[in-house]
Amino acid sequence: xxxxxxxxxxxxxxxxxxxxxxxxxxxxxxxxxxxxxxxxxxxxxxxxxxxxxxxxxxxxxxxxxxxxxxxxxxxxxxxxxxxxxxxxxxxxxxxxxxxxxxxxxxxxxxxxxxxxxxxxxxxxxxxxxxxxxxxxxxxxxxxxxxxxxxxxxxxxxxxxxxxxxxxxxxxxxxxxxxxxxxxxxxxxxxxxxxxxxxxxxxxxxxxxxxxxxxxxxxxxxxxxxxxxxxxxxxxxxxxxxxxxxxxxxxxxxxxxxxxxxxxxxxxxxxxxxxxxxxxxxxxxxxx
Length: 287
Prior knowledge:
The structure is a single chain. The chain is an alpha/beta fold. The protein has one domain (33-282): P-loop containing nucleotide triphosphate hydrolases (Rossmann fold, 3-Layer(aba) Sandwich). It is built from 11 helices and 10 strands. The chain is globular and about 55 Å long.
């Protein structure tokens, strides 16, 4: 008669929340193969004398999606805003340390914040179309900031179509371009904001919880768009939704109390986190 035998594993397996399903990527991004898009060294972001981001050193790869997760108030959005110099627009805010985009320091002497934002577009949590502008003029709004960029573009209709195509919105609005942007649904407005950011042909798109105010169907469309954008631009997305990070990103960073705890491939972070604090967060023990 066979007796059952309890098998004790030699090494305990890491417990990771089963609700997070990591999308199987066609290609992985090993650390040794990363081509840097954004690099920071000892980046600290302050509001007066209070540090919201503390000594963050990280690399964001080119043509990939990097997600930033962490509990509320941990500095995710502040870190994102440091990547295109939006942080310094807040009275009393300042940045210490080093930030480079494609090898160029964006806080160097003589560097124009407007020029930085043309190459590093940003989309906010709530859709922010310009209410007095048509759909078409919303897309072109970013081009009007820089007269040199405006003069170098002759085919504005082509720019509008290209940006809306890339944002997955062209088929839905091509016959309504002169209507008010406020006539669009919330999800369409958010994709219009993404199209507006894409119209300047940036190298990086920053997304600050872009689906937080959207319904599930609109969220799905934005996520599909984010997943496709990696083919042409680098994307950094802040999200409270760990399932969303797992679905759309190649790499994930975990922030806690302003500090970067861990940055690795999304699959590695959700299946075998290196830091106990990361595991505690993704399994729901805090946050």
